[in-house]
């Protein structure tokens, strides 16, 4: 009989990435069925309850308290896992205590330590993020809001205040930025150059910046604006501010804009801004059609095309046709399991442009929702909330996609599996090795597994090492996410 235990750590807050890493470690312990470490907000308690991870001890937590929730096969395993979780949580606390002089607990004390700081990265529970961001703005700081679950009204108010103060708000739910060569949150180590990126898309920024780096070019700044910035409600406030700043930056020659399709009103506003600029632009609004762009801007259908346009490298669209493995008999469907929402969207664009019907849990225009189909090609964004409630993001814990991957490998109708491997700061230490381990337990080599790796040689996981591990596991590795999608299409057509 399984056993669920909760422990509340009052007044303890740790970065969400740290919490996800601890939960991943605990979930892998013997006898543990599931584990999650989350702040005790009402929304998070609901997530824990829906995941069968909440018991009365955890219900007592407030929004500023940490809940450690573990479900195991028996009480012994649950107790051992809780002891390990507490040990892992107390380690960073001990480190902080040892260097308290340089570990400020408030924004005010942080500014006393470093009065020259000009940016605050906010990573607190969503219910408190707006208040902390507001403090930072009023202290004269730009703000990157890593936190999610910030209300739309708060986002609009913060961005309007930032605009009035000539400051920038990146986010909420901004997971990627590179400022002056410094990667923030989920980002990659890329060379400094003269190409700027503005993106409402974290993995989109990562893919484009890495492809630009591989082409021998570099990034001046990559500015994340949050997924809602280009909506009608927000109106592109942060995007317009970022455009103005990169326009005045002498080190930025060319600017790339990345997003899923904005509202028509926002597109018009952005186009007008581009028309008055002295710089050149590449605009990649994944899935958008017939964008009204000025003469100094070109549209790119894919992230790969955007990187090619910005850096000047020759885009290879062959898709590895000559290596294609034909899907035979009943094995006629492609299954894609993506950790990056923008990478899933890019794959959908490529399928649809070739006239291939595709379904997704996050469909772009022209694709079908999963609920509308019972069979066919499916491309899933496993970073979506429906898959990550109570669990780490698949970029942090690649085990999130183990179950759907195993199902696809055992499905006699599946001929090809598409995977994205995203490395860099904050990502899993060795995602390729994890995939190889899953595949190693599956002896048959049908279906074919196709993957791309988003990253660089300078990333902690090392691009070439990840590719080599996948190659050794029998994975067909392509040089970009777009090329991987094209390879899957080549298998269909072969």
Question: Summary?
Answer:
Helices cover 38% and strands 21% of the residues.
**Which spans have pLDDT < 50 for at least 5 consecutive residues?**
95-101
> Roughly what fraction of the amino acids lie in strands?
15-25%
Indicate the CATH architecture of the largest domain: 3-Layer(aba) Sandwich
| Number of self-contained structural domains | 3
Shape: globular
Helix content: 25-40%
- Could you report the average pLDDT, rounded to the nearest whole number? 90
Distance between the termini: 51 Å
Q: Structural class given helices, strands, pairing?
A: alpha/beta
Q: What's the CATH H-level superfamily name of the largest domain?
A: Succinyl-CoA synthetase domains
**Rg measurement, Å:** 23 Å
In CATH's first tier, which class of the largest domain applies? Alpha Beta
Number of strands: 20
How are the strands of the largest sheet arranged? 8-7-10-9-11-12-13
Q: Count the helices. How many?
A: 17
Reported for the largest beta sheet, the result is: 7 strands, mixed
| CATH topology group of the largest domain | Rossmann fold
